[in-house]
Specification:
The chain has 172 residues and is an alpha+beta fold. It has helices spanning 4-17, 44-54, 99-123, and strands at 30-33, 62-76, 79-93, 131-143, 146-158.
Amino acid sequence: MLKYSEYVDFFKTACEKHIEILHTPSNKHFERIVLDYDPMMGSSPQIRAFISGKKRELKSPIVLLISYVARYSDERNDAQTKQMAGGIVVLKPSAAGDFDGEEAVFDDCERIAAELMGYTDEKLVLPDRLEWTGVVNERMHDVEGYSGVRFDFTIVVPAYNEIAYKPSQFGE
C-alpha cells in the first residue's frame, strides 16, 4: 500500500535529488496542492491562485505535486487495488507574447517532468508492483508569469486488506 505521506515524500525526495531542482527548505521548488475539479473551468484557476500566493517563496523550476484521488477496485480477479490519480506540474518563468521562448520553456519543463516520472518508475519500490496507466501531458500557459506542463497519471498498487472489517477497531 502506498500512503499519502509516502507519495508526497517520494516526489519531494525526487525534487531534492534532481540536479536542476535541488529543493531544500531554504531553496523551495516543491509544493503540494489539492485541486477540486470544476467541469466548467478545470483546475487552472486554482493553480494560478496558488502560484500567485506562493511565487515569492518558490524558485524556478516550480514543481507542484497534485494530491491524488484514490479509487479502490477488485476488477482484477478479486485482487483489490488502489488506483491513485495524481499529477505533477512543472513551471518556469516565461515572457508574455514571446511564443518562441515559451516553446523552449514547454520543452524544458516537459523534459524535467519526464525525468521525475522516470525516477519514480525506477525508484518507487512497493511490495508487489507499480503500474502506470494513463499518463497525460498538458501545456500550461501564462500562469502568473510562468508556463510549463502538467502530467496527470494513475499509479495502481495492491490494496490487500486496506478496506476490510477489523473487529479490533470496533470493540466488539
